[in-house]
Amino acid sequence: MKHTLYLASSSVSRKQLLERANIPFSLISQNADESQCSLKQPLDVVVQQIAELKMDHIVLPEAQEGDVAFFLTADTLTLDSENKLHGKPIDRDEAVIMLKACRQGTIVGSAFCLERKIFTKGQWKAQERIVEYDRAWCVVNVSDEFIDFYLDHVPFNQVSGGIRIEGFGEQFVKEVNGCYSAIVGLPMYKLREALYKLGFYNFE
Fold this sequence. Notes:
Largest sheet: 7 strands, mixed
Oligomer: single chain
CATH class: Alpha Beta
Radius of gyration: 18 Å
Distance between the termini: 10 Å
Number of domains: 1
């Protein structure tokens, strides 16, 4: 890797995906108001809009003339069997509602926005932006008997739909069809391709 990747996300799952892929990164913040994006749109449209909105509101790091860096934002939402979109539950009660709605299967979609910037004349200037989306259908079946057990061990307020399919949550995953890492929070195959296209990797 020739340059720095800045991740504007507080998601533990996204950090772990990058770490396992041996993609070094530094964390930055963003202050986007996600309520600007209407949830009355298709899943792919909403998550891509939010990912781009976050990119437009990242807190840019200090740099020196000529520095080149990559910036990454992402968003994940779930669509239940009744075509209702869910983000992160605000509390335990809402998490229970979301989990029950997902027992018959749910679509989880993730989008990322990757931007290559150069620092010139005292400011960051965008050179190229890639926005990608991927999804998977999954059945995460947390029965009534296990809901408290699940919620006691999963950071449900940090994951879309209260669903965490890695680690402890794996035992409740009945079926997955599609991009596994999109459920976790980042479509890694498409991200690697985008990073390569924008010149992040250096194999010389």
